[in-house]
């Protein structure tokens, strides 16, 4: 069994932002030399997400508007914010969008359907964050 | 390390539908010959889900009603639909229900609790879709 | 390839409760002797969750209040409850919070960001439940 581990560093311009990380994940799979296996990609922070969906700008705006509706920013609305934080909403938003994805690696490539791409979803940005990529297989 | 990859093809009768795929996943695990490992099952499309829950028809209706409440169909309600699509809701619904599951394989079997079964959740059906099953282990 | 499987037993005092299981998961990784691999942790029941977030009590209260808002307890509100159950809400709540997490194991440790910890989320408690931990790697 082989394994390969990489950490991406990211610092978004916006507090709420969606970033396509598919090229970085593809490169990690190539570097790994793994032909058959599983690739885990996860946010290493608890106010951000990694998810798979369509690379369509309107949809990304829909995602951000939707999580704001389901878990609105509200500095006085969350017990978590009594700790001095104002990011209670971000913990909930990331829960809807998910922490991680697991992707099949087949014949040395991400085994994706026609529209699948990997995104980082940031809900408390403008600070240094990390994303983990780990591939195991043969 | 061994690996086994399969693709299920599905075309639902309804736009919104939940389908039990547990038998197909069990068969793939048997075919793989893997005794200890991990089994990934994921939708290969971005408007459908794979999830684990109870095989109870009333609950499945509850799931469909609930995602409709949280992310209603609305042809004019999503920026994504400005591309000519009408499935903006389906991308959100699938996000709630999840893209994938990872299941332990122990002693050659899906290592499930008493009521766990695997389902495909379709939110933009009546067209050809695929589900990926990948098992790695020994 | 090595693998290690463990089952945690849990019976919460409350119907709705969040329990930190990070120490148990760490111990399982140590016992496994695996240095590089993937660790799956999942609820084996369909009314409970395993998820990763912050170990902050106020946030945990926020999570429980939030899932109650998105999927309220309502004995007459779910078709699933026509079976004689009253836990229709718990199946939906667990869906938001997630069934499972997959964690990278690197240099023999859970490869976590600074605030990541693993939690069990119970939405129909006061009964025996199990959590599965499976690590594969080398």
Please give a quick description of this structure:
The structure is a homotrimer of 138-residue chains. Chain A is of the alpha+beta class.
Give start-end ranges of low-pLDDT stretches of chain A: none
> Which structural class do the helices and strands of chain A define?
alpha+beta
Number of helices of chain A: 3
Order of strands across the widest beta sheet of chain A? 1-8-3-5-6
Helix and strand layout, with pairings?
The structure is a homotrimer of 138-residue chains.
Chain A: E1 2-10, E2 17-20, H1 22-32, E3 37-43, E4 48-53, H2 57-70, H3 88-97, E5 100-106, E6 109-110, E7 117-122, E8 129-137
Antiparallel strand pairs in A: 1-8, 2-7, 3-5, 3-8, 4-7, 5-6
């Amino acid at each position: 069994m082989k394994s390969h581990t990489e950490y991406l560093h990211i610092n978004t311009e916006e507090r709420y932002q969606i970033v396509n990380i598919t090229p970085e994940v593809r490169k990690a799979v190539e570097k790994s030399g793994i032909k058959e296996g599983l690739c885990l990609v996860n946010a290493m922070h608890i106010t951000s997400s990694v998810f798979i969906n369509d690379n369509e700008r309107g949809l990304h705006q829909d995602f951000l508007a939707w999580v704001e509706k389901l878990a609105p920013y509200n500095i006085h609305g969350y017990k978590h914010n009594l700790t001095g934080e104002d990011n209670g909403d971000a913990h909930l938003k990331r829960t809807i969008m998910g922490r991680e994805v697991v992707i099949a690696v087949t014949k040395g490539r991400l085994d994706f359907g026609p529209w699948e791409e990997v995104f980082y979803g940031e809900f408390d940005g403008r600070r240094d964050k990390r994303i983990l990529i780990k591939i195991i297989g043969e």
